[in-house]
User: Fold these one by one.
Assistant:
Number 1:
Amino acid sequence: MSSLDAVAKDEVTIAGTNTVPISNNSFKISHWWYAICPAQHTRKARGDIKMQFGNALLLKFIAVIFSALALGTVLRLVAQRGGSTKTANARFSSLKTWWGLALLMSLAALMGKFGIILLLAIAGALGLREFLKLIGWQVLGTPTLIALFGSVPIYYLLVWFGFGEVVRWTAPVVFLIAIASTRSLSGLMEGYIRTTAGAFLGLMLFVYGPSY
């Protein structure tokens, strides 16, 4: 009898002995623990990384990207000879950005699901930080900022643990309730609607949106 058959019949074999019944509640608890078990997801991440490094097509694609960047860098350096310092600094800054993006995207692709989630989390946090600067740190207040930036790792950890469908439907409501209640309980009532709406928009644009 396979393990799936044993589960289907609410029984389990212990060390080759006779099968013993298990309750549905016990199975549900073990199922949820299996879903959130860090060791399980760590093994899965390692397997994804090994598989991606063995993907010849992906490796060729990354090699083409970096070859094109290297060629473009050489051409830009040659074209800049004799140019102004201001223009040279602007072009070098642009090159650094492109190389950084290429490196991050390549590492994320090679690391599989974990790499993509990590990349989205970092990009989301950085984008959210820049967006919230437009609203103002002082206007938002420390409690609101803690709630906002704390939502980013919690959100992506839930996605990593396999609860993507759940957070897809519940995250917008939870985000809004968390921001609104944090500001209310902290007594941050000045510009309440505008600030709460702006903070919520930031989470939706830079955290929820890219991961959808």
Number 2:
Amino acid sequence: MGIGWVIGYLVGGILVAVVVVLLLLMIRGASAAADKAMAILAALEETRDNTAVLWEVHNVNTAVDRITDGASDIRRHLCRQNGVASSTSGIGSAPEVGSNPGIGSNPGIGSTSEVGSSSGVGS
């Protein structure tokens, strides 16, 4: 075997070694990328789970609208029943206190005569 063969084998061996090192670096990089992708996927799944309730906001708004519509209907009915002009301006449009003969007619409700009469705190 001549010197040309030995040089050829050395050059071939070096090339194979370089290719092996490059492949190992590529595999390590791909593994790191896969780890990062798994971490990102886990974060996205956690975000999805934590924000799932946001999809229910529309249902909550719909329920609130139904409740406020029902309250407005009840207010209008009570105002009509008691002869008080109803307002459609929404919250804060309740009739004045005392305009409904049913409110405050029970002496036990809303009475301040009992305040301070018991021997409770501070006695």
Number 3:
Amino acid sequence: MHPSYRAEYTQYITSLDGPEPAGSPLVTAQIGSLAIRCTLGASGYGVPEIRLAADSLAMNCYLRGLWCALILSHLMALPLQGQDSEVAAVQSKILALEHVWNQAEGSKDLKALDSIFDNALVYVDSDGSLLTKAEFLSRVKSAPIEQVTTQSMTVEIFDNTAVVTGTYQAIGFKDGKPTLSRGRFIDTWARRNFNWVCVAAQATPILR
């Protein structure tokens, strides 16, 4: 028996019968995996250590179960942590592409826009018109817009698809006067050959 258990047992005996007399006989027994140790006192009866052995066995089982649960929870959390970091990386990349879109549209960089749009792009403009990729690029080229900024964006990842929602602000000139328009948008991105391209987009003006 572990020394700490023996010390507890001695204190337990003392509190009931007084100190163990010298030369008290020690009776031991083995029942399965449970060890029973009993010291007989002068009165001829003893207080067995069954309770202590059972407590020890229960504590060992409890500690082993606790360690197994902690290890299992840690192992289960590893794939989730990896998934979270991968999702965060994709979200950052999509947000960067959205900013590239804004800068390219403001500077009329059609080459940059062409690289981030899928050839089958479906675009619903703020006036409700349905545009193809070529039609949208042509409209960007002639639009009196000099700067486009996004004020808030949220990215949701669905396997190989990402959906971005947010608001934008466009500054330009019309008839020699500055214009300011605000709107809400939703952009859908898809992974194509390890690259992300925009496959669908819609802009809705905010009138209030």
Number 4:
Amino acid sequence: MADQPWTRLTAWLVRLGIAISHGRPYHPQTQGKDEHSHRTLAAEVLRDRSFSDLIDTQQAFDPWRRVYNTERPHEALSLEVPASRYRASERSYPETLPVIEYAPDVQVRRASLKGVIKLTRVRSASAGPSVANRSACDPLRQRASTKCSTPTKRWAGST
């Protein structure tokens, strides 16, 4: 996951305990389901059509989504509709995100809203989330291909 982009959505999902999985870059066969649904959406809703605003766009998407998920059989589902396989998550949706707990031996810094972490103490209040600072040679961060000859520092979530 280290080579994958982290977004605010990704960070939010991780804090909710949801594992993130990305397809391999430049390997469209790993995203076949997504590519197929996008191609179908483009052919059936978007082709030869322009929308005046988001409301107009949503009004075109809603009926298509209903038919796609509740009426139209899908080969990958043995000709069942996706709605027949849907199960609501058993996870409860928290009112607030859980607090991030760090091990007592790691440095914790606060990231700015732009994701910048200052290595020196600053006097201004920090608005972004806290992150842990571990050595690149920390056994929790080390990979077999990593050589740890220099005492460099890396931030959690980076490579």
